[in-house]
UniProtKB/TrEMBL annotation:
It comes from the Eukaryota. The chain crosses the membrane at residues 52-71, 390-408, 420-445, 451-472, 493-515, 521-546, 956-977, 984-1003, 1009-1034, 1055-1074, 1080-1107. The lineage of its organism: Eukaryota, Metazoa, Chordata, Craniata, Vertebrata. It comes from Echinops telfairi. Residues 388-546 form the SSD domain. This is Protein patched homolog 2 isoform X1. Belongs to the patched family.
């Protein structure tokens, strides 16, 4: 090896478009200034480490107490409907007018055969369905000292108002619950109705023995029931259930009026169920086939042959309705009745309903029952949102063990197991404090917060702990003890700041996704990352400083009360001590204090540093014949290599103690990776991976089914699977708002209904059934009473001056026809023959519209209930008395102008998200068309609440990713002060995001708001794997290959440890009993971590070695008579004072490390570029250490 001297060192700007070599430019100066601030911060923390640790723990502990006020949100509407969105505004309008959207809650039973595809349209299968439905309908729960059964809490549609008190009480007890069941086609459907009434001289009246026609005949002599009889006739009640066939005609209670009572023949189930069934009212309670049967098959003529599933639906009152129903009732006057109590009653009943229904059939039965209720879904969401203490504790204990073991060393004085334990505990406290701060800020927790965030934040936070711990052990030799923490922050603080800021920006960008649950999760994650950043940058250095004191005192790691049996000496050589003696051969790193001379040229183009004459004695030849690495400045390396000297140490390490991840990266990984053929293979591999991922991206479908959320293998999952397969029906409504004249917009309303009914997804009504809308029912009712009036008028029963002899309907028409709507002259009898209640075009005269609405609502409760109109403001009550001919009875109050009404519809065939999106777009288009005609309307229902997000989900995803990549570029360019490097980092991050998206397609993971948040966050998380290597490359001297290898040497270990810690943090998610957590969080985040590791440690170093920017600090050689021909002493390296000090030079005393035997890597030294001189063994070590520059903060001592 030839004689070597330290040459001129210059600092120049990184930007590719600025080429003057040797300029001291802004990027280096700014980073040096920033690192000086970090150095000063670290020194201050080290001086006051105890105080900083105490105050930090106090502050974070106080914030963690905020968890006591945390609120876990489980309401689906609050979780999934964007605040301020179109759907949210519509939902708010609905609740403002109605108080709550749902008028009832549904409890469902689905029966399927245990053998897939078996027909259930048999008397035996219907008998088992009856058995399960009976068990469920007989549920009673005791709460608040009262007994609650189905008849008390069920939803009853259209209970009429009767003036006769006895009949009214009997009807109230007997009026049936709304139960949609295939059993309603048979007499056995009456068994599900629990009401009963008592009349003297008769057995208890129940629906199993009630013949309404016969009952009215018996009661006729005792009460005037003409209006009630007309009501039943209009509703086509007939004989109710006793006129229907019996499933089991051998039943002793099968009524004699049943069609098969005499023949004792079982009915043809398929024929009876063909076309659907009806409740006690044939006209208003029609249950379509699709509501009752699933998996139907038909013959070529369309006749029903078989079905694979049966469904019964029990409707219960909503909590508000139940509260209003019993408010002021004698049964609840002593319990402080409230809406919360009503909700508790319903929940208790529903849980018992599901339990008994599932237990109704024996295990060996040929059929199986699946039960579900609204409370079941709430319970699932509540369980989904609960914190799993076992998994949480297990995950953190696993991380503690890993951190402790990975930082333990054979040399006890250099071991950092305690630091690892303290770091993990500190991150855990920071996570708790961040979540506590979120609770204090009012951010509601949800399942993502409780199930995922603690583990994700732990993995991300521990990454920076490993980085600081690694850097702390690799401080440059000769660093004063009181500056060790400052030196650590100076070299790694920029990387920690970059990753943390990018993570926070990533999660803030993810908050652009307009889903409240995911927006809250993103904001909470950003806040937690910020708390982790504060803890790692402020408190963790104090822990390192305390551990430094232990190491300085040579005490055991973890068991710090005991002294270490191993001690290691660092040879400190001063120039006057060495004199003319040669450096002992075999010492590879030497720390020495020397004098240097610094001079600024007049043109300020470069800084020249000249050392005293030093010469290098010949060393053993390099087996690979090249030199790549400059001294790493690692204390661990210095201490380990001292073993080779002739000096004896107190104890020797085992051979395996020399191996670590940095050793692997230096001697194994980098030499192979940076070979030309290896680079080619890497580029080809990642190009193929990118291409394959682009194809996989086309396979990604939108959607998130409820079956993905519910744990597999549970009864709830079995129900949801059966429902999705056989009964994919959704109740929706077309809501019309205020702001337009309903009376004059009837044609537009009919057109809107027709347009909506023609949508592909809308279940069509049978050809024999009239549309189920309030406007159709209202118009048909008016036409009915008009026909009655015309008949009575023609027969003379109604005249201009009297209607008492006419029918009830004729009298109602009489009163409506004479209304003028004028307050001064409200009645005009001349209109009896000059106007019609419905004109020839099928429209209601506008002046009669709201008065007729009052009469219809009061006179046709069954029709009103069947229409599900939900008018607001509700029309006034008005009682009709045919025998009251006073003027007050003739005046009909007009209803207030409507501000809310709705048309009900059923959507079918919605299996995939694309089906929902098509239906939503069609419904929105119909409403937009009506809006152009002056009708304000919007669709309402669960498909619009939970699936409308997919209309713009991909748009928000692309927007968030693009903004985040731009922000990442700006942050990296600002802190790295290198747009070139920032561009390469953003390129790698873009590839990672595309590849993760493509892998989701191959794994069958659908795109919903949750994967979108993870994909957006992947950009920030990916920075953890890339920016450390990029910064190490940027701040290192030499050729591109040399700098890439040196960056790998220093960053391979912390990046790998960070990836492993992230995987360990996520590992507990794999144990979740919710398959949704495993697939959508653990799998996706684990794939992201592996992609980050590959891209950060394989692809990025290769790209940097090929396309990386030039170094910020380069070496230039200045010829001088003093250094061109130095004498060559023998026996090693010798030091001597310079003969003369050139004019303009200043004397500076500093410490440096000289590498005498650097490790080899082929190729880098033999191909130096003109602008990037090859590495020289005597290069300034301060510029050789990634992440640090020679200018320091205020702790630098200069003399």
């Amino acid at each position: 090896m030839s004689d070597v001297v330290v040459s001129a060192v210059c600092l120049r700007l990184l930007f590719p478009f600025q080429t003057p070599v040797g300029s001291l430019k802004a990027p280096v100066w700014l980073r040096a200034y920033f690192q000086g601030l970090l150095f000063s911060l670290g020194c201050r923390i080290q001086r006051h480490c105890g105080k900083v640790l105490f105050l930090g723990l106090l502050v974070f502990g106080a914030l963690a107490l905020g968890l006591r006020v945390a609120i876990i949100e489980t309401d689906l509407e609050q979780l999934w409907v964007e605040v301020g969105s179109r759907v949210n505004q519509e939902l708010h309008y609905t609740k403002e007018k109605l108080g709550e959207e749902a008028a009832y809650t549904s409890q469902m039973l689905i029966q399927t055969a245990r053998r897939d595809g078996e027909n259930v349209l048999t008397p035996e299968a219907l008998g088992l369905h009856l058995q399960a439905a009976l068990s469920a309908s007989k549920v009673q729960v005791s709460l608040y000292g009262k007994s609650w059964d189905l008849n008390k809490i069920c939803y009853k549609s259209g209970v009429p108002l009767i003036e006769n008190g006895m009949i009214e009480r009997m009807i109230e007890k007997l009026f049936p619950c709304v139960i949609l069941t295939p059993l309603d086609c048979f007499w056995e459907g009456a068994k599900l109705q629990g009401g009963s009434a008592y009349l003297p001289g008769r057995p208890d009246i129940q629906w199993t023995n009630l013949d309404p026609e016969q009952l009215l005949e018996e009661l006729g002599p005792f009460a005037s029931l003409e209006s009630f009889r007309e009501l039943l006739d209009k509703a086509q009640v007939g004989q109710a259930y006793v006129g229907r066939p019996c499933l089991h005609p051998d039943d002793l209670h099968c009524p004699a009026s049943a069609p098969n009572h005499q023949s004792r023949q079982p009915p043809n189930v398929a024929k009876e169920l063909s076309g659907g069934c009806h409740g006690f009212s044939y006209k208003f309670m029609r249950w379509q086939e699709e509501l009752l049967l699933g998996g139907m098959t038909r013959d070529p003529q369309g006749q029903l042959l078989s079905a694979e599933a049966l469904q019964s639906t029990f409707l219960l009152m909503s909590p508000r309705q139940l509260y209003e129903h019993f408010r002021g009732d004698y049964q609840t006057h002593d319990i402080g009745w409230s809406e919360e109590q009503a909700g508790a009653v319903l929940q208790a009943w529903q849980r018992r309903f599901v339990q008994l229904a599932q237990e109704a059939l024996a295990e060996n039965a040929t059929q199986q029952i699946h039960a579900f209720s609204a409370t079941t879904l709430d319970d699932i969401l509540r369980a989904f949102s609960e914190v799993s203490t076992a998994r949480l504790v297990g995950g953190y204990l696993l991380m503690l063990a890993y951190a402790c073991l990975t930082m333990l060393r054979w040399d006890c004085a250099q071991s950092q197991g305690t630091v690892g334990l303290a770091g993990v505990l500190l991150v855990a406290l920071a996570v708790a404090s961040g979540l506590g701060l979120c609770a204090l800020l009012g951010l509601a927790f949800n399942a993502a917060t409780t199930q995922v965030l603690p583990f994700l934040a732990l993995g991300i936070g521990v990454d920076d702990v490993f980085l600081l711990a690694h850097a702390f052990t690799e401080a440059p030799p000769g660093t004063p003890l009181q500056e060790r923490t400052g030196e650590c922050l100076q070299r790694t603080g920029t990387s920690v700041a970059l990753t943390s800021i990018n993570n926070m920006v990533a999660f803030f960008m993810a908050a652009l996704v307009p889903i409240p649950a995911l927006r809250a999760f993103s904001l909470q994650a950003a806040i937690v990352v910020g708390c982790n950043f504060a803890a790692v940058m402020l408190v963790f250095p104090a822990i390192l400083s305390l551990d430094l004191h232990r190491r300085h005192c040579q005490r055991l790691d973890v068991l710090c009360c005991f002294p270490s049996p191993c001690s290691t000496r660092v040879i400190q050589i001063l120039p006057q001590e060495l004199g003319d003696r040669a450096v002992p051969m075999g010492i590879t790193h030497l720390t020495t204090t020397v004098q240097t001379f610094t001079h600024h040229d007049a043109n300020s183009q470069h800084v020249v540093t000249i050392l005293p004459q030093a010469h290098l004695a010949p060393l053993p030849s390099d087996p690979l014949g090249s030199e790549l690495f400059s001294p790493g400045g690692s204390t661990r390396d210095l201490l380990g290599q001292e073993e080779g000297t002739r000096e004896k140490t107190a104890c020797r390490s085992l051979a395996c103690a020399h191996w670590n991840l940095a050793h692997f990266a230096r001697y194994r990984f980098a030499p192979v990776l940076l070979q030309p053929h290896s680079k080619t293979l890497v580029l080809v591999f990642f190009g193929a991976l990118l291409g394959l991922s682009l194809y996989g991206a086309t396979l990604v479908q939108d959607g998130l089914a409820l079956t993905d959320v519910v744990p597999r293998g549970t009864k709830e999952h079995a129900f949801l699977s059966a429902q999705l397969r056989y009964f994919s029906l959704y109740e929706v409504a077309l809501v019309t708002q205020g702001g337009f004249d309903y009376a004059r917009s009837q044609r537009a309303l009919f057109d809107l209904h027709q347009r909506f009914s023609s949508l592909k997804a809308v279940l069509p009504l049978p050809a024999t059934q009239a549309p189920r809308t309030w406007l159709h029912y209202y118009r048909n009712w008016l036409q009915g009473i008009q026909a009655a009036f015309d008949h009575d008028w023609a027969s003379g029963r109604i005249t201009r001056h009297s209607y008492r002899n006419g029918s009830e309907d004729g009298a109602l028409a009489y009163k409506l026809l004479i209304q003028t709507g004028d307050a001064q002259e409200p009645l005009d009898f001349s209109q009896l023959t000059t106007r019609q209640l419905v004109d020839q075009e099928g429209l209601i005269p506008p002046e009669l519209f709201y008065m007729g609405l009052t009469v219809w609502v009061s006179s046709d409760p069954l029709g009103l209930a069947a229409s599900q109109a939900n008018f607001y403001p509700p029309p006034p009550e008005w009682l009709h008395d045919k025998y009251d001919t006073t003027g007050e009875n003739l005046r009909i109050p007009a209803a207030q102008p409507l501000e809310f009404a709705q048309f009900p519809f059923l959507l079918r065939g919605l299996q995939e998200t694309a089906d929902f999106v098509e239906a939503i777009e069609g419904a929105r288009a119909a409403c937009a068309e009506a809006g152009r005609a002056g009708v304000r309307a919007y669709p309402s229902g669960s498909p619009f609440l939970f699936w409308e997000q997919y209309l713009g989900l991909r748009h928000y995803f692309l927007l968030a990713v693009c903004i985040l990549l731009l922000c990442t570029f700006l942050v990296c360019a600002l802190l790295l002060l290198s747009p070139w490097t920032a561009s390469l980092v953003v390129l790698v991050l873009t590839m990672m995001t595309v590849e993760l998206f493509g892998i989701m397609g191959f794994l069958g993971i659908k795109l919903s708001a949750i994967p979108v948040v993870i994909l957006v966050a992947s950009v920030g998380i990916g920075v953890e794997f890339t920016v450390h290597v990029a910064l190490g490359f940027l701040t290192t001297q030499g050729s591109r290959d040399l700098r890439a290898a040196r960056a790998l040497e220093h960053m391979f270990a912390p990046v790998t440890d960070g990836a492993v810690s992230t995987l360990l943090g996520l590992l507990m998610l794999a144990g979740s009993h919710f398959d949704f957590i495993v697939r959508y969080f653990f799998v996706v985040l684990a794939v992201l971590t592996l992609l980050g590791l590959l891209h950060g440690l394989v692809l990025l170093p290769v790209l940097l070695s090929l396309l990386g920017p030039p170094p910020e600090v380069v070496q230039v050689y200045k010829e001088s008579p003093e250094v061109l021909n130095p004498p060559t002493p023998r026996g090693g390296l010798r030091w001597g004072p310079p003969t003369t000090l050139p004019q303009g030079f200043a004397r500076v005393t500093t410490s440096m490390t000289v590498a005498l035997h650097p490790p080899p890597l082929p190729g880098a030294y033999t191909h130096p570029t003109a602008e990037e001189p090859a590495w020289s063994p005597a290069a300034n070590p301060a510029a050789s250490t990634p992440g640090s520059l020679s200018p320091r903060g205020p702790c630098v001592a200069t003399r």
